[in-house]
Write a structure and sequence with these properties.
transferase, Rossmann fold, 4 domains, binds shikimate-3-phosphate, 750 residues, 6-phosphogluconate dehydrogenase C-terminal fold, UDP-n-acetylglucosamine1-carboxyvinyl-transferase, Chain, alpha/beta, 5-stranded parallel sheet
């Protein structure tokens, strides 16, 4: 596709003659911006109010003041109708006979269905040269005198073309708005009207209504004297133009009525909660709203979950060398954090969690439970209080549950949602959308669950509620704690016993924590089992620091001469300590100090000092116990003397990225040769790591592993696509700097 901005610079303005019909705030501001940016060669304005047109000329908003619509649009290749939405049909009928043959006609109205109906009634069809538009910008001021060339800068403009709209004209219109500084989006007409009814029209209606209600009270306007800032902020939009808003409500009638009904029902629920003293319900609604509003504020400042994941580009820049010294505590264990929210929500009573990982993955789980009606306070510096609703107390969410980057969340949710009375849909980001879900959907179907996946067993997952599940005896084809946990969670809802046998031991947090919540899970060799129909009881949880996050520093200290680092309160569950076992076998100096048990999980402080590492054949039984730590273990292998061979690790290919290939590619960028095999890798230690740029492919652990590599690289290392480090280790950069790693962060994009 031709770049419209290119044509702007290489072949002059986008349009020769732009006619703006209606010189109010929006029409005037557009004319002014277009003139200032040279987006049209000539800008002509027309308005019923002659004074406004003259004023526009004086203010330099337009090049020419037309006396009639006919003269204004004669030979215009762009006509912008910027009149109130209710006047649209009359104006369109008036301009119809005078339009040039190659014209592009657009508007700036707040409702699009009404504009398209007016177009159809005047032209008998929706011509391909009519492209509706709506700049989401405005002010309580109106009229040409308030026109500002920067009114649209950093604002959104929604265009609602039809499937048959002229694509070249659409591109030019996008370039025009882009040239005014706006971000241009396109969407169907009906969707636009629904979205605006909810996000703009309803709030205006409520503001008008509230101010009117209070103004009509007996003690009349006196009441406003006592109104504080909250009232002022909340009702600011009630000062908007009444005529314009009366137009908008009548024009977007159906969509507005639907959203008013929805709001009325929710308001009635709150009223009832107050009347009946249902504080729990109030807390639930308010904390869910607060979380949503906080999320929205972050989104506006460009840091939200979705924004971070999809738009913000984060690059790590590392200077070679550095040291590793100090005493740190890495954030809470991701696996335990997910499960603490899940089991807390499904239990009776209150669960208080300390040390919760405030990373994007576990926050996605937390939000999903809020979406299903669970009241969750926090997180606040790792503290979360969950008001459990019991195994059968979840409510249907209003839309799909978005789980971001988290495979653990999606697979565990699949199990616990298969047994609910309502339908759910689970979605995630680009990486999650590529990950295999058949491994959970297939055995769940054997239990009686009804689950649809996209092609190849990929997300989204659509889970049908109201099914009767029956216990299953399942021998897993792969060593996966996620699959095991998924089936045990489904087993809570199943008739009879669910038994899951693993080909090799995998992390056992689900079993330990269920027992901790008073739900008995048995173990018979390689088989974990439970019976459906019991209940969970909430209680306190202390989440240890995540050994998977500590692993980056275990390797960092091991490979850096002079290093001496203590990592506090690290979870050393025997099913997670593969990384310690492997590093020790390579010759690492790791001392496990102050071993203790906290809430059913073994915890210790780890002291690690530099040591000369040697290459090893990694024992296959350690692979599931170190499954998330291989990216950084590969860096240890490069720094070791001799050959390291990994086999039996094909699971690494279906993690957040294909971790075998992506690590091999990244190492190659640094000049390190490796031999990739189907289920592992062979690394010759002692190769020099040069400077280079590594693509982490959005995989948090790849990004952190190469950050560690810089300690021993001969040149600087740049790592791209690092935003997802926030999924598991939000303060990684700070802690890395604290110990002496020379890391800088560069961010770009929205
Ligand atoms: C996890 C299990 C592992 C691990 C993941 C967390 C869990 O996945 O890689 O980061 O919390 O159960 P698999 O079970 O797919 O190996």
């Amino acid at each position: 596709m031709a770049d419209p901005m290119q044509s702007l610079t290489s072949s002059g303005p986008l349009f020769q003659r732009m006619a703006v019909i209606g010189l109010g705030l929006i029409g005037g501001s557009l004319a002014k911006a277009v003139r200032e940016q040279g987006l049209a060669a000539w800008v002509v304005g027309v308005d019923q109010r002659q004074g406004e047109v003259q004023r526009g000329l004086e203010l330099g908003v337009i090049d020419e003041a037309a006396e009639s619509v006919a003269t204004a649009i004669k030979d215009a290749d762009l006509v912008v109708v910027a009149v109130p939405v209710r006047a649209m049909e009359t104006v369109l009928a008036e301009i119809r006979p005078h339009l040039a043959s190659d014209v592009l006609l657009t508007d700036v109205g707040s409702t699009k269905g009404s504009f398209v109906s007016a177009v159809q009634s005047v032209f008998g069809r929706w011509p391909d040269w009519v492209i509706p538009g709506h700049p989401i910008a405005g002010s309580e001021k109106s009229g040409i005198s308030a026109a500002r060339a920067d009114l649209f800068a950093k604002h959104k403009v929604i265009l609602t073309p039809s499937e048959t709209s002229d694509s070249a004209k659409l591109e030019r219109l996008k370039a025009l708005w882009g040239g005014c500084g706006a971000t241009v989006l396109t969407m169907p007409v009906a969707h636009h009207d629904e979205v605006l009814a909810a996000t703009s029209h309803l709030p205006h209606l409520i503001a008008f209504s509230l101010v009117d209600t209070l103004a009509g009270e007996d003690d009349n306007l006196e009441i406003f004297r006592y109104a504080a800032g909250g009232f002022r902020d909340f009702t600011r939009i009630a000062a908007s133009d009444p005529v314009m808003w009366h137009d908008i409500f009548l024009s977007n009638r159906d969509a507005v009525l639907r959203v008013i009904d929805h709001f009325n029902a929710d308001l009635a629920t709150l009223r009832n909660a107050i009347e009946t003293g249902d504080g729990k319900r109030l807390l639930q609604v308010f904390s869910r709203a607060k979380a949503a509003r906080d999320h929205f504020s972050k989104m506006l400042s460009g840091q939200a979950y979705v924004t971070t994941m999809s738009q913000k580009q984060v690059t790590f820049k590392l200077q070679s060398g550095g040291e590793v010294r100090g005493d740190i505590r890495v954030p809470g264990d991701k696996s335990i954090s997910h499960r603490s929210i899940m089991l807390g929500a499904l239990s009776k009573g209150v669960t208080e969690v300390e040390g919760f990982l405030e990373g994007e993955d576990s926050l996605a789980t937390l939000q999903a439970f809020r979406d299903m009606g669970v009241t969750i306070e926090g997180p606040d510096k790792g503290f979360v209080r969950i008001h459990g609703v019991g195994l059968h107390g979840l409510q249907a969410p209003r839309g799909p549950l978005y789980l971001g980057n988290s495979g653990t969340a999606m697979r565990l949710f699949a199990g616990l949602l298969a047994g609910q009375a309502f339908d759910t849909e689970l979605t995630g980001d680009e990486s999650l959308t590529k990950r295999p879900m058949g491994r959970v959907a297939d055995p769940l179907r054997k239990m009686g669950a009804v689950i649809e996946t996209a092609e190849g067993g990929r997300p989204p997952l659509r889970i049908k509620g109201g099914q009767t599940l029956k216990g299953l005896n399942y021998v897993m084809p792969m060593a996966s704690a996620q699959v095991k946990s998924c089936l045990l969670l489904a087993g809570l809802y199943a008739d009879g016993e669910t038994r899951v046998t693993e080909p090799a031991p995998t992390r056992d947090h689900t079993e330990r924590m269920l027992n901790g919540f008073g739900y008995s899970v048995g173990r018979d060799g390689a088989t974990a089992y439970l019976k459906g129909g019991g209940h969970l009881t909430g209680g306190p949880i202390d989440v240890p620091a995540d050994i998977s996050s500590a692993a980056f520093f275990l390797v960092a200290a091991s490979i850096t001469p002079g290093a001496d680092l203590t990592l506090r309160h690290v979870g050393i569950n025997p099913t997670r300590v593969g990384v310690i076992n492997i590093l020790k076998q390579m010759g690492a100096d790791i001392v496990v100090e102050s071993e203790r048990e906290v809430g059913g999980e073994p915890v210790a402080d780890l002291r690690v000092r530099h040591a000369k590492l040697k290459g090893i054949q990694i024992p296959e039984d350690q692979v599931p116990l170190a499954i998330d730590e291989f990216p950084v273990l590969f860096i240890a292998a490069v720094c070791a003397e001799g050959e390291t061979v990994l086999t039996g690790a094909e699971e690494l290919r279906v993690k957040e990225s294909d971790r075998i290939q992506v690590m091999a590619d990244g190492l190659a960028q640094l000049g390190v040769k490796t031999t990739v095999t189907q289920d592992g890798i062979v690394i010759q230690g002692g190769q020099a790591m040069q400077s280079g740029t590594v693509n982490s492919h959005g995989d948090h652990r790849i990004a952190m592993a190469f950050s560690v590599a810089s300690l021993r690289s001969e040149g600087d290392v740049v790592i791209t696509d690092c935003a997802n480090v926030a999924t598991s280790f939000p303060n990684f950069v700070d802690l890395a700097r604290t110990v002496g790693i020379r890391i800088q962060v560069e961010e770009s994009g929205a």
